[in-house]
Specification:
Structural class: alpha/beta
Oligomer: single chain
Order of helices and strands: EEEHEHEHHH
Number of strands: 5
Strand order of the largest sheet: 3-2-1-4-5
Length: 167
């Protein structure tokens, strides 16, 4: 199973593709989509959408995992991140790719085992899980890989539940 993890944003969208074979997780490609500040918001959303479509077409994920919005004090930022999240999810849904959504707490719990883990702990576990020589930068990329790992662990749990309920 190939999973695309997304850490949504309007300036930087972190992405990470991982392959899950049994319990083994292998990094395929990771990086970020960046848009220029002081550019028309509609144009920035189109750039995010177009880049997401290109990545999906190139790497052909079986599933996408997206971090749910954590509503902070800056309402304007939350709205623009929500819009970026929307165009990314649209890109997946248009191609028939199922989308899983996870809160930051769920991601931390799945990757570190503790829902209130520090960012550096999550990043280090991502590095270890994927056997990377260094923590991916910028932080948005490591976050996207963490979301993909969370989905990989969640899909394993869902598969086991399906097996038990079939009996």
């Amino acid at each position: 199973m190939r999973i695309l993890g997304i850490d949504p944003g309007i300036a930087i969208v972190g992405f990470g593709f991982i392959d899950k074979t049994g319990s083994k997780l292998t990094p395929v490609q990771y990086g970020c989509i960046q848009t220029e500040a002081h550019t028309d918001p509609g144009l920035r959303l189109k750039q995010v959408y177009d880049a997401a479509c290109q990545l999906i077409e190139k790497y052909k994920p079986d599933a996408m995992a997206v971090e749910k919005l954590f509503f902070n004090r800056n309402v304007t930022t939350a709205f623009t991140v929500g819009q970026a999240r929307g165009v990314i999810i649209l890109a997946a849904v248009q191609r028939g790719i199922p989308v899983g959504e996870y809160t930051p707490l769920q991601v931390k719990q799945a990757v570190v085992g503790y829902g209130k883990a520090e960012k550096i702990q999550v990043q280090e576990m991502v590095r270890m899980f994927l056997k990377l020589s260094a923590i991916p930068k910028p932080d948005d990329v490591a976050d996207a890989l963490a979301v993909a790992i969370c989905h990989a662990h969640s899909s394993t749990l869902h598969d086991k539940i399906k097996e038990v309920t079939k009996r």
